[in-house]
């Protein structure tokens, strides 16, 4: 049954009489922005907007410093996501956030009630990031036919075996209660992912993007990315405790995808084909940007994360229809300004002290197996596909690269409340180690 309270008001105002005769005022329990500055005995940083601006300045500064340091150490050759993850951890509960109770300024800056607006802003950036990722993935029939059988075999075997291994690691190596019994599904997805953007960056830095092994790696990563997103969507759908709700989610998600393919896709193509080159009208740009949010809202109402809707919306737009100028402009704003906020929010979800409840040998076993299983599977399957040994070793190392999708899977499990704090930190550590390999 559809939630009857969907469109009901969640905040009930208090009606009071005004000084004007016959006029009633609606009063809400919310902070109101003031512009008195520092000239009154009111701290402007107690208001939502000033503290939000200070948070953005701090997050952007720390993130850019981490990226600059990463670029100077070129011999390490780590993807930019490594610097962004480290910046988020430095500002999160395992870094600066540890001083919230000891320092009043830090406590005022990152108190729980001050992070709510920041979380909305970060999730908005993540929605547009996945729209751009879907936009860059060419999954037309022609592209899928060009991918060889060897790439399909390597991608699917590596993903499936890593997924099953993730289930075993979660069940046997990590403590969980009955309320967290479905967390292994999200861990399986996180372990089976290959980070396509991170892999592209690594191959470009090594000048292997257009080599034979580079093209094979990109084909395998593309198939793996499709498998990962389908798996994540199905896992979120079935994570509910009701079979009826899971079936309703699955049916609604199927209808949504069909509507996007057969209704929204032709409409978007019709709008974009009436533009001159890359010079899109303001109306066309607004339609694209609003469409991302609308599709995200649709899947959110279905019960699946809004990222899936944004990703599907980017996926249905043809690869060569939307001009490069639009993509570069949006990508620069999202990657440079919005995404550091989301990485900081990931840092807030980690608590270094929570590892005390886990035995260290189990943590080390989990991290070691998580780092070995996919390269080993890739190497074995490459051998049976008659690939040279050096290409098999190269593929095994490159396809073990993690990216944002793994962190998104763990965050989705945390939001679905099927991952405990200690398990979330341990699994995030596994993902971070594999990103840095």
UniProtKB/TrEMBL annotation:
The keyword Protein biosynthesis belongs to this UniProt entry's keyword annotation: no
Recorded topology in the membrane: Multi-pass membrane protein
GO cellular component, one term: endomembrane system
Annotated InterPro entries: Cation/H_exchanger_TM, CPA2_transporter, Na+/solute_symporter_sf
A matching Pfam family: Na_H_Exchanger
Gene3D superfamilies from the UniProt entry: 1.20.1530.20
The organism's place on the tree of life at top rank: Eukaryota
UniProt keyword list: Ion transport, Membrane, Potassium, Potassium transport, Transmembrane, Transmembrane helix, Transport
Record flagged with keyword NADP: no
One GO-annotated biological process of the protein: proton transmembrane transport
Regions that span the bilayer: 48-68, 80-99, 105-131, 151-172, 184-209, 221-244, 250-272, 284-317, 329-348
Residue intervals of the Cation/H+ exchanger transmembrane domain: 68-424
Molecular-function annotations in GO: antiporter activity
Compartments, as annotated in UniProt: Membrane
PANTHER family in alphabetical order: CATION/H + ANTIPORTER, CATION_H(+) ANTIPORTER 15-LIKE
Assigned protein family: Belongs to the monovalent cation:proton antiporter 2 (CPA2) transporter (TC 2.A.37) family. CHX (TC 2.A.37.4) subfamily.
Protein name (Swiss-Prot/TrEMBL): Cation/H+ exchanger transmembrane domain-containing protein
Species of origin: Escallonia rubra
């Amino acid at each position: 049954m559809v939630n009857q309270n969907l469109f009901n008001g969640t905040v009930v105002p208090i009606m009071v009489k005004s000084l004007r005769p016959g006029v009633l005022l609606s009063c809400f329990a919310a902070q109101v922005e003031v512009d008195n500055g520092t000239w009154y005995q009111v701290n402007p940083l107690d208001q939502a907007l000033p503290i939000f601006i200070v948070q953005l300045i701090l997050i952007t500064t720390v993130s850019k410093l981490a990226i600059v340091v990463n670029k100077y150490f070129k011999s390490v050759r780590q993807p930019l996501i490594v610097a962004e993850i480290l910046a988020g951890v430095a500002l999160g509960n395992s870094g600066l956030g540890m001083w919230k109770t000891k320092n009043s300024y830090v406590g005022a800056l990152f108190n729980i009630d001050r992070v709510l607006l920041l979380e909305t802003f970060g999730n908005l950036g993540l929605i547009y990031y996945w729209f751009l990722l879907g936009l860059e993935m060419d999954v037309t029939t022609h592209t899928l036919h060009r991918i060889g059988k060897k790439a399909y075999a390597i991608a699917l075997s590596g993903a499936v075996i890593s997924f099953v291994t993730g289930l075993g690691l979660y069940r046997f190596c990590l403590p969980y209660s009955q309320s967290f019994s479905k967390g292994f599904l999200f861990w399986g997805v996180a372990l089976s992912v290959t980070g396509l953007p991170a892999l592209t960056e690594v191959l470009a830095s090594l000048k292997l993007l257009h080599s034979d092994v580079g093209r094979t790696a990109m084909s395998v990563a593309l198939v793996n990315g499709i498998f990962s997103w389908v798996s994540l969507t199905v896992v979120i759908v079935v994570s509910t405790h009701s079979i009826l709700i899971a079936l309703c989610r699955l049916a609604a998600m199927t209808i949504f995808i069909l509507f996007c393919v057969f209704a929204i896709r032709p409409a978007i193509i019709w709008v974009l084909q009436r533009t001159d080159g890359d010079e899109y009208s303001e109306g066309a740009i607004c339609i694209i940007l609003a469409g991302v949010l609308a599709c995200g809202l649709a899947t959110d109402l279905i019960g699946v994360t809004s990222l899936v809707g944004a990703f599907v919306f980017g996926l249905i737009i043809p690869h060569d229809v939307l001009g490069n100028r639009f993509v570069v402009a949006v990508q620069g704003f999202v990657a440079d300004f919005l995404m550091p906020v989301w990485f900081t929010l990931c840092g807030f979800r980690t608590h270094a002290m929570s590892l005390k409840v886990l035995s260290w040998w189990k943590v080390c076993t989990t991290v070691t197996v998580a780092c070995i299983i996919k390269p080993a599977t890739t190497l074995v399957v490459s051998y049976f596909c008659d690939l040279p040994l050096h290409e098999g070793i190269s593929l095994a190392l490159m396809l073990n690269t993690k990216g944002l999708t793994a962190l998104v899977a763990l965050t989705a499990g945390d939001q679905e409340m099927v991952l405990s704090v200690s398990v979330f930190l341990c699994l995030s550590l596994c993902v971070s180690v594999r990103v840095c390999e």
